[in-house]
Amino acid sequence: MIVFNNVSKIYPAGGCRDSLTVALDSVSFKISKNEFVSIAGRSGAGKTTLFRLLMAEEKPTKGRIFFDDQDVQKIRPGKVYRLRRRLGAVFQDYKLLRDKTAHENIAYVLEVIGANRDEIERDVPEVLRIVGLADKANNFPHELSGGERQRVAIARALIHRPEVILADEPTGNLDPYNTSEIIKLLLKIHELGTTVVLATHNKEIINSLRKRVISLENGKVIRDEENGRFIL
Amino acid sequence: MFTALKRIIRAGWLNFSRHAGISAATIFIMVLTITMISSLFLLKGVSEFLIATLQEKVDISVYFKATTEEDDILRAKDELAKVPEVKEVRYISREEALARFIERYKNNETIMESLREIGNPLLASLNIKAWQASQYSAVTDFFDKPVYKELVDKVDYQERKPVIEKVFSLSANVNRTGLIFAAVLAVFAVLVAFNAIRMAIHDSREEIGVMRLVGASNLFIRLPFVLQGSLCGIIAGLLSLTLLAAAAYFLSPKVEMISGFNLWQYFNANFRIVLAIDFAAAIILGIFSSAIAVRKYLRV
User: Fold this and answer.
1) Would you call A226 an interface residue with chain B, using a CB distance cutoff of 8 Å?
2) CB contact under 8 A, B214 and A112
């Protein structure tokens, strides 16, 4: 379903052309449908870059990325939204629309794909109930705690039943209780048949999952194991 | 399609109402801009009126010999009226000329005394107005024809030529300077308004990025902002129109006292044009500025 084929991403260091930072170095792996894969690595290992490339936010310096046999790099900027509608993304900094309520943030994704009013009125409260925020539907992001914001972001990511959920450090800003809740939610989504790719540097999470782990270090894949553990 | 349109309109309204402060600031700047552009039109009316009044005062006179019959003069007048360069011809008989002279000098006893002694020394004349300063030579050429030469005593063109040319060159200068001034001011105003809208959208740049990341198409992102911009434009247009109407109404008596120009009447007579300028400026500014400004942030 997702293929990274010898992908490298190199940035000019601090905007200086003479010095370069290698974010990803010849990364190759495949992720199949309905898999739950964790991308493990320290901060700066290249986890976020990997997601940015997959979402076509940036182009790789070298190599190719495929999503269902479609070369991501070849998608025209005006058509990128078609790829993104097949993905659901959760970010460490939530990336919620600050002037929309929790309900509106989630409904926005359905509006974008052209869902009708009945579907929106049926699905949004349901997903808010699943993430435990039924009573916060009309709150704006600044009126929610970090954990609540992240749950809204997860609800937004799964409302349109995407084929893949990309979760980039979704627990990075959360306390242990909320961390556990978010991971439980991701597992539940996976059980319902969605492919989940989770990037994290949290050792406990990875060790408790007992799923496939791709470990990154300095932009390179150093380990790719089923039932993997956090070893860096 | 209808659902998408409804959602875009709702999103545009929410953008507008939830950013009330920014919307108000944008409207304020747009009101200034649009009022400035519309007042240029009103100023054009005032300056055209003043120039026309000044040009109206310019003319030349052709004096006929005392022996020339009135019928010959009237025939010459009819022929002259057919010359395209001539705007207006007026016949002033010897009697009318005398009556005007007496009216002007009735308090000057010496002149009146002399007049009583010599009778009516004044000649019949044609008072001629041309469209432009350069066209007066065509009038003098007309009277150079042999058939008229023996009837005419004097054409005062050469005496008046410097004044005529000065008036017309002044009018042309005022027109040209006004046009350049208006163009510069309009460009400046448009840039200020564009920048105000751009700043308002700059504030939403992160949101635009998020919308892109969750799969919104460019059109779905852009249209609510464009709608927000045009909403600001329409409100600014209405406010500016009210401001202009109030200014025209209250300033009219003073402007009329100074220049003879009735600003309020001019505003009413040209209301449709003012309305068109006002709303065209408002909506074009609102739509184009926001469309261009959003474009910058759609590259995520």
Assistant:
1) no
2) yes
